[in-house]
Design goal:
The chain is 43% helix and 14% strand. It is built from 17 helices and 14 strands. Strand 12, helix 16 and strand 13 form a beta-alpha-beta unit. The radius of gyration is 24 Å and the shape is globular. The protein has two domains: 196 residues, Rossmann fold (3-Layer(aba) Sandwich), CATH 3.40.50; 237 residues, Rossmann fold. With 435 residues, it is an alpha/beta fold.
Amino acid sequence: MHVAVVGAGYVGLVSGACFSEFGHDVVCVDKDAGKIARLKAGEIPIFEPGLENLAARNSKAGRLRFTTDIAEAVRQADAVFIAVGTPSRRGDGHADLTYVYAAADEIGAALDHYAVIVTKSTVPVGTTNEIARRIRQAHPGKDFDVASNPEFLREGAAIEDFMRPNRVVVGTDSERARGVMKELYRPLFLNETPVLFTAPATSELIKYASNAFLATKISFINEIADLCEVVGADVQDVAKGMGLDHRIGAKFLHPGPGYGGSCFPKDTVALLRTAEMNNVPLHIVDAVVQVNDERKRRMIYKISRALGGSVAGKRIAVLGLTFKPNTDDMRDSPSLVIVPALRAEGAEILAYDPEGMAEARKLMPEITYCADAYATLDGADAVVIITEWNQFRALDLDKVKSLMKNPLLIDLRNVYARSEVAAKGFAYVGIGKGA
């Protein structure tokens, strides 16, 4: 089949590359001529494990191409995916659909044959039907359907999630569109992947509800971690005991400095705005958002308390800046709250992240960036782990101690066991670890 993907960002590139791996002919479109030139040259502008090789293989085979010309991409397409950004709108938190509607308008103008226009971007309930209405109003008589097909991709594991998903969700009221989507995902049908066909509004809400529920688990275990610290319990054992109950499950019960990234922060707020518009209070989701905002600020207090009540004049080594490992994504990372606050209180910050420093430099130019983890430690009064990159899990603790002025490890991801670092002469502060 012929597939066009409008938007060569994270979701668009992963989706386009994976559809081409399925054997489809894929054209990815983006208005950024510089980005398209880099993609044509084989340079992937985002860090996602395996994506560069996947794109190179399918580009060489002629199944994956890149262009700035949306009309060219749409010309032969059986399906046109909208995979542009839907950031939070400034001032009110609603999803900004400017790019979605602009893409839909251009697709509608370019269509000269039947195709399914598919919203892959995360969009509020009703957007898929609104896209159809807009195009029909502007171009009466054109033959098309619009479907919702939300993505459920974890950054750092996106290719695995696309090729071997837990489920595929498609929202459409059209049997013809359903047939096209079945053919697109035929390799997954052969693998007996669950494929759920629903109404468009249901599909759109499944995406938001899923992200809100996962965010709820994170905020829940973070609050339990705070209680553990006061009553003398160990949150990791609590989470393990909870997770062994199959009704609960162990995933996303990992305490830390709060969730970030491109999805959970904006999607929980967008869901709240949709609920408000429809006069349906979502008290739990509202609490989740508040807990997460407070969580990041609480980490600042935790670090300050570990350093005697003030960070003024202290040199702090920070390991990990991205919102999670195996990505270069800095969006809504806890580090963007924690690090500037420590600087504002008078701390000197030396930081290292394996993939995120180029973007971090734009957002936090006032801190010192180092070539590796050990370079951050020279004369440090404390080392703070914010992101749990694998390379931080096996640091040479003897070397770490020899470089530091004060052997204090503040582990905001519980990468290390207290007994392990204490045996090396460190003072240790973890998350949800009672005395």
